[in-house]
Amino acid sequence: MASSIGDEINLATRSFHTTLNQLILHQLPLALPPNTPSHQLYALGISHFQPLYSIFEGTYRDHLGSAVLPQRVAEILRKLHLPSLERAQALENDIRTLLPQSYRAPHTTNDSNLEAFKRHVSATLTQKPHLVIAYTWIFYMALFSGGRYIRSKLRVGLAASMASVASAAADQLAGLSFWDFPGEHDGEDLKIEYKSRVTAVSALLTEQERADIIDEGVKIMVLLTDVVREVAEVVPRQALELALETTSGDKDIPVPGPVSRIRPPWLLLVRSLFPFGIMEAVSAFMATMPPRSSSEQRGVNLMPVQLKAE
User: Is 299 left (phi over 0), alpha (psi -120 to 50) or beta?
Assistant: First the structure.
């Protein structure tokens, strides 16, 4: 019996997991009380990942309704699909809860790491539908491992500035429903069922498809790491813009250059506008921000090869 493709993805991406986890665990406390007085830094950061879930889940659903997929590939996708695992809508709802409307979509440029990743996901899953296995494995399984730890930290951190957060119902009110799953087992039953399905469909994959999926898993980890580094750069500036807008009520106040280039007079002015300490959080982010790394520097090819005929 063929080994689970999920286990092979884990083996191929182990070192990337370590790097990515270190980045996330280093940045997360800076986005929560007492390092910042509210939930907005967390919300600004997590908003960058909602489009990725939305694109791959939407493309997956499109494939399920397609009449042109080869029968074997269509069977694989149907066997694997668990609608209760989908996270895009829950994350969108959280962002609506936590941020004003003008900041619910990530503010990025066309050459950003996030935009490059979005284009890659769309092109890749259109050309090679079986690669959805890599996306579901990495984007969903992460919520059951490190995601449980992150949720615990978010509950504690947000409870410092809100009512006590300790349940799925409270999470929904607090903007943390992304981390919860329906049912009395909090998704543990879904995890077991999903992993069983991955093992089952692994036997239906060709050797080339398995190699494609493992290769895509590595690319996903590299691109996710680049997005996390980018979030650490852009979120402090977005938080400053949001604070200026919220505090002054004047959306035309200019914010000069990147936050890292704000001169002391501007910093003093900004501090005088925000007695609640947002600049302390911004300064903490910028002081610990890891160097930016691009996919091109790592030699990752973002353009997938054309799908060969089955």
Answer: left
